[in-house]
Amino acid sequence: MNLSQLNLPAVLVAALSGFAIGGIWYAPAVFGKAWMADNGLTTDAIQQGNKGKIFGFTAFFSLLMAFNLAMFLADAKTDLSWGATAGFLAGIWTFSAIAIHSLFELKSWRLIFINGGYSAVTLTVMGAIIGIWR
User: Fold this and answer.
1) Consecutive H or E run containing 77
2) Is the dihedral of CA 118, 119, 124, 127 positive or negative?
3) Under a CB-based contact definition with an 8 Å cutoff, are residues 118 and 105 in contact?
4) How many CB atoms lie within 10 A of CB 49?
5) Which residues of 58-82 are buried (b: 16+ CB within 10 A; e: fewer)?
6) CA distance linking residue 64 with residue 104, whole number of Å
7) pLDDT value for 4
């Protein structure tokens, strides 16, 4: 790992990509309705959530994910292909952790694939951004 190989603007853009992907992924027309149903949530309940807390911590954790991935990819040989591959592999890791927790919480397989799929796709895109932006 070579810290001089870190590209902080790429890390920031990769972190922001999680918001864009999440906005699409959890939209009602995509997986939002199923996600809400499987979590027993209503639109009213979601609207009552503390948006500052939710989006603030989401930004923090997205930045942490992107920075952590960038640390693993901090090598001059990293390119788009390796970045996306490493991101996908990290996504499989997080998918597995989500699945384990969700199984003990008695969540549905549909919810496991919605949440785990978001993680896998987001980390793949983050890795691609970090990999291509050298």
Assistant:
1) none
2) positive
3) no
4) 11
5) eeeebbebbbebbebbbeeebeeeb
6) 26
7) 82
Mean pLDDT computed over every residue of the chain:
96
Instruction: Provide the token pair at 39.
Output: 């979590």
Q: Give the Cα separation of 60 and 32 in Å (integer).
A: 22
Q: What are phi and psi of 27, to 5 degrees?
A: -65, 145
Walking along the chain (134 residues) 10 residues at a time, the average pLDDT comes out as 85 97 97 98 95 96 97 94 98 98 98 98 98 92
CA separation, residue 116 to residues 2, 93, 95 (Å):
30, 9, 4
Q: What is the pTM of this model?
A: 0.94
Whether residue 33 contacts residue 134, with contact meaning beta carbons closer than 8 Å, is answered with no
